[in-house]
Amino acid sequence: MGARPDLERLIFDASIPFEERALAVFRYQRKECPPYKRFCDALEVTEQDVKRLQDIPYMPISVFKEVDVCTVPIEQVPLRFRSSATGGVRSTHWVAEPEVYRRSIIEGFRVFYGDGPFRFWSYTPGYSENPDSSLIWMIEALMDSELCSQAYRHPICKPLDVNGILSNSSKSDPIILIGAAFGLLDLIELGFHGALPENSVIIETGGMKTRKRERTREELHRELSEGFGLPLGQIHSEYGMAEMLTQAWRKEGRRKKEEEGFRMPHWARVDIGHWALDIGHWTLDIGHWAMDIDVPDTPDPRSPIPDPRSLITDLANLYSCSFLISGDRMTVYPDGSFEVHGRVDETDFRGCNFLMERD
Prior knowledge:
359 residues, alpha/beta, 2 domains, six-stranded mixed sheet, 9 helices
């Protein structure tokens, strides 16, 4: 199926510099991923032109909504993820080697939480019914791993009977309750019997915008802390998306200063690029490459408008595209951690017609 076990080993090898790993993945995807090849061709970026990480062209993540981003024929691909439908057109991510995703999930979690074992509890309304949910696949991978000593999937719209669940198990390992923010808030409103053990951790995976009142992450964590009766330092966050195979984690309890946020394992990172409005065109500056994209009906094309865009390098996306421009607005701190401030308006890029042509 076109697997590259040599590259699979490479991307998870922390002894090799990140840039060296990224360049090897770029060379592979430049040749084998048709949409990314067309993207590089349109920018006139050859393999020989790219000698540093900052030379690599990053492709808009919205391309996953339009074309099949994969290095092998999709009829041979065993796994597909689709984004939620809240944003309109759904992205599709074809996963040619599920074991790469499984390894990214388990090893990434171990980097931030250790070897466990843990009792994984989940509550995922709105996701459990989606057979193509990457979040559900992630949770199930953790539950099926050696990190897990007990797996519990709480039924939708039912009060949480903590005492009843605990009475059916002799385990004393830490409980990690994971779910989308709106679901966890609903779980508090439904009420629960008993109290979570003191060593429990709540991990919210986002999803604040589906509520009637959108909350900041700080407000959300205070509500979860008070509602579940746990210290604020035990309310954590996960950041991920259907188009990525690596998660970022944010542990409130480990923050020593404000400039610490989400962190990714060593095979992924976030950087910041920008768009500059220039005489009716958007010009994307990434390294020394520039791509002009027509923007019709621009109200004042003479006024430069800086607009930060997050550049995600996810080497676990080995068989799709590892170099993506996200639609999220972020702040990246000097230590490599980052904060997410919400979506950027108009994240779908116009004028990339060469990307829409299928082979």
